[in-house]
Write a structure and sequence with these properties.
This protein is of the alpha/beta class. The protein is about 50% helix and about 15% strand. A seven-stranded parallel β-sheet has the order 3-2-1-4-5-6-9, sandwiched between helices. Strands 7-8 form a two-stranded parallel sheet. The termini are far apart.
């Protein structure tokens, strides 16, 4: 499968890598609702490729399964000419552990291979496409100077790859991303987020606004809405948006 033909109706094109993820699905859904010609990328080796193809088509998006190589991605982006490329890729420790238990190498799903490797590949491909789309990268709170742990180190390297691409960029660094509708079971994470948000709310009620602004969670729908808005704002180009600005700009906040 390649890209389903998005047609030539003049709509602004947005390309979403990591479209099957929790935030990615929200970004796709909201882009379609906002009238964008939305290309939702699915890994060509995904065991659920046909299912995702159908789901995205039913959403009104154009599914795409371009292989993760610079030449292939460059060709797709050159053909589509997207105004914005959303890079929402990422893996989890749980995914790596699952591969290891199944007797498969976890290296293909490591932070280096996915969080950094695919981001760097997509940025390079977008830079080679010839029209310099805005590159919106979903990073994480804690990336940047003096990152702690492997996850943050590779997220920081991914940010450097985006900056080094020469593309106009918007990097966003949310804290916790919440929501009751994750397909995967993250009950413990949801409980932890709820407890922390409760503690932050108490601190806020006592007059301590700083921790509330820095660390409170944002739901996937709110984060998607902010990223889409930032992607279209000229003043957000070539900026790293920290968690305070993301939460403050989310709908209903």
């Amino acid at each position: 499968m390649g890209t389903s033909d998005p047609g030539t109706d003049g709509r602004t094109v947005a390309f979403v890598a990591g479209a099957t993820g929790y935030v990615g699905q929200q970004v796709v859904r909201q882009l379609v609702a906002a009238g964008f010609r939305t290309v939702a990328h699915v890994r060509p080796d995904s065991a659920r490729l046909s299912e995702w193809w159908t789901r995205f088509t039913e959403m009104g998006a154009d599914p795409d399964a371009t292989p993760w190589t610079v030449p292939a991605m460059s060709a797709t982006l050159k053909d589509l000419q997207p105004r914005v490329v959303f890079c929402l890729v990422g893996t989890t420790r749980r995914r790596m552990q699952s591969l290891s238990r199944a007797g498969r190498s976890p290296d293909t799903a490591s932070y280096e291979a996915v969080d950094y490797g695919l981001t760097a590949l997509l940025a390079q491909a977008a830079a080679h496409a010839g029209h310099a789309p805005r590159f919106v990268y979903l990073s994480a709170m804690g990336a940047g100077p003096n990152p702690k742990g492997a996850y943050m180190r590779w997220r920081t390297k991914a940010e450097h790859a985006v900056l080094g691409s020469g593309l106009p960029y918007t990097i966003v660094r949310p804290a916790m991303i919440t929501g009751p509708d994750r397909e995967e079971n993250r009950r413990g994470e949801r409980i932890a987020n709820s407890v922390l948000d409760g503690a932050l709310g108490l601190a806020r009620s006592l007059g301590f606004q700083g921790p509330w602004q820095r660390y409170r969670s944002i739901d996937a729908a709110g984060l998607a809405a902010v990223m889409i808005r930032l992607a279209m704002e000229p003043q957000a180009a070539n900026h790293t948006i920290e968690r305070e600005e993301l939460v403050a700009g989310a709908p209903g906040r």
